[in-house]
């Protein structure tokens, strides 16, 4: 098993980075959120890795932090969750956020991630809830710790924001239209209703005209 790689950034592509270690280039797939933070070409970096060996391919997956690598391995323990989906989940949620989501069984938050349906979200919560809670207790962090700029709407705001960001909208514009969507609602909206309302505002914005 390759635990980590220390080298220089040789090049980057849409799903990962090539790290040069003494003339050998290692292709390492990483969460999209981590790729945005990579140092420039030629600069040094260290990534914590997990090796997946299949009959037709050998793949390396890398993470900025050891905690994220360990969460990746935890996700792979769940039936039906492969490396691609696990990487996608960690592209949207940090390791700490994911622990909170699993510990508190926030299934709608998981369902807002591409590739995670209702059954997969339920399976993730059922299989990993206790392990997530145990890790949070070990860290002494048993409080809700999912950061968000929300007008007192809690999980619904988080879920709607995650859905809009995954659809390709910038966090700043997603927050702006969500604030309008909540403000215009006569009653407490559901996830589908608030996302639909937000998309209506986005469709009227200059970007889409």
Secondary structure elements and their pairing?
Layout lengths: L3 E10 L2 E6 L2 E6 L2 H4 L8 E10 L4 E6 L2 H11 L6 H10 L2 H9 L3 H5 L6 H22 L15 H12 L4 H14 L6 H14 L5
Parallel strand pairs: 3-5
Antiparallel strand pairs: 1-2, 1-4, 2-3, 4-5
Question: Nutshell version of this structure?
Answer:
With 209 residues, the protein is α+β, with helices and mostly antiparallel strands. It is 48% helix and 18% strand. The protein has helices at 32-35, 66-76, 83-92, 95-103, 107-111, 118-139, 155-166, 171-184, 191-204, and strands at residues 4-13, 16-21, 24-29, 44-53, 58-63.
Description:
By secondary structure, the protein is α+β, with helices and mostly antiparallel strands. It has three domains: 4-63, Beta Barrel (OB fold (Dihydrolipoamide Acetyltransferase, E2P)), CATH 2.40.50; 67-139, Orthogonal Bundle (DNA polymerase, domain 1), CATH 1.10.150; 155-208, Ubiquitin-associated (UBA) domain (Helicase, Ruva Protein, domain 3, Orthogonal Bundle). It is built from nine helices and five strands; from the N terminus they run βββαββαααααααα. A five-stranded mixed barrel has the order 1-2-3-5-4. The longest helix has 22 residues, at 118-139. It is globular. The protein starts with a strand and ends in a 5-residue tail after the last helix.
